[in-house]
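An example makes the point: we let one protein speak, the chain in one-letter code, the fold tokenised, and here it is:
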Amino acid sequence: MILTSIDYVPGYDVTESLDLVKGSTIRAKHVGKDIIAVFRQIVGGELKEYSEMINESRQISTSKMVSEAEKLGADAIINVRFTTSNVMQGAAEILVYGTAVKLNKRVV
């Protein structure tokens, strides 16, 4: 599956726009990670525990979106975007969405 943040795939023609596809996950903070993060805030530096959680959440959401596109028979997802929102204190949703499309290799 080709994923791109632009509205086309270089070297291909979009032959059909299938549908908007999306994937999301809601993750809550972990108490143990919060304690470590508080210490890092005091001394400075990257909050690696939260970076890992967000990266994992992006991967899960992207996988769900790709699965939805595969069910439609898509070759690619264009205009891929990520967004985050707070659902409640200590929990956030990661949403990824894009347009599932069919492609043909461009003949030059």
